[in-house]
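Late entry, evening session. Most of the bench is empty. Finally got around to the prediction I had been postponing all week. Sequence below, unchanged from the version circulated by S.P.
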Amino acid sequence: MMKKLISGLVLLAMLACLVLPAAAAEPTALPMTVAEAVDGVSAYCTAAMQAAGTYSDWSILQLARSGNLTDAMRQDYLASLAEKLRACGGVLDKSYYTQYSRTILALTACGENARDFAGYDLTAPLANYDQTVWQGVNGAAFALIAMDSVSYGFAASGSNSRARLVAYLLAQELPGGGWDYSGKAADPDQTAMVLQALAPYRTQANVSAAIDRALNVLSGMQKDDGSFDAWGASSSESISQVLVALCALGIDPAKDSRFVRANGAWLVSALMSFRVQTETGLAFGHTNRTANYMATEQAGYALAAYERFLAGQPALYTMTDTTYGAHTCVRYRDTARHWAQPYVCAVTEQGLMNGVGSDCFDPEGTLNRAMLATILWRASGSPAADGGSFSDVPAGQWYSTAVSWAQQSGIVQGVGENRFAPMDSITREQLAVMLWRASGSPGSTQSLAAFPDAGTCSDWASTALAWAVERGILNGMDGRLAPGGTATRAQAAAMLTRYLQ
């Protein structure tokens, strides 16, 4: 009896020491709906631009992404911008390249091609890596955001790329997480902007880790009223940028316990505390409730981002749903009407696949075994790897490290006789097997009987194919699996996108 009593006391003591994850508090109710706030800001900004006769890129972006941009204002903005470009010879600024980034975003939101507007390619300056990062993390972040809006491609003759910008941002991360323009202490605005830029790359292990650290930093910085201090005072702009970042990352700020304070205060309730009702619409203050146009713009597009999140629409800066973005993957002229266009855009945005030449993807071209190993290696964050043992994979080739990593990770096993056959075209079943192994070789109860050619599957690929069909990664071709058929680049893009989802 005494032993049972002691055991029970020990168990109670152990349970008392457990730290259970805190559930999110009930978020504070808002004084108006998000949609009402978005429409109020839209009215305010529209009236302000009409009265001034000038147009703000950020306001145009907010109006377009919230569905409140009238055709008349769109046409006036585009005409005004075209006139401005002709007057300056297409040079918006010789130093601050964020001028190009924000204009690209506004143009794309309006359904225009920023690579060919009024005779100018506004993405061209961003191909200059040194000048783009001259503004620090701000320049790099918004260049990525702009170029990823509809997968614009960097000029092949330039020095910039998505990979370089992502690497730059990761290198600028502060000890403990987060970012700041000065590189001293994490700033909520800068940290949030970098998170917005890195969101499309969060499947990469090193990016994911940096994002997690930054989110923890932001959570620790959030005050009891749901706001953030920047430069010694709470500001609505800081709240707005964090709100955009969370929406881009697929995080609901009303449900994530990291961003709902114990008293129920959360990002949007804090943002609403800066609102100012005016005769022409809803405005927001900077550090108080005095209307400030810049603060209003940022609050407007942040609320639009949240409205889009709640509606299940593409994120604020993911503009594949615009008139232009919905019909063409801007980087590649040969995927404009191809069935795989959305998948090509997805793998391009994440830096997993590149084109062939400056503006073609070659969707019906074949994919070789070295290419797929490299794609999976990139998706895992491009880790270092020692030399592999395949006799036909010499050191120093563009695929050597990727194949070594894939071999060491158990993703590839070669084709026999210690060979990998890197240049051999990959079949659909080989592609499925490599994705299956990358997922840990899980079991599957999926039947392949519905496919008339299921009997042609190789024994070593049957479980992988069943898993791929069960997960929705692999679909049939005219009702057939075609396991031994050569995988095209378009099919690979589609399977990779579904796999990563």
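Two things to note before I forget:
The first strand starts at residue 229 and ends at 230.
The CA atoms of residues 390 and 416 lie 10 Å apart.
Will write this up properly tomorrow.
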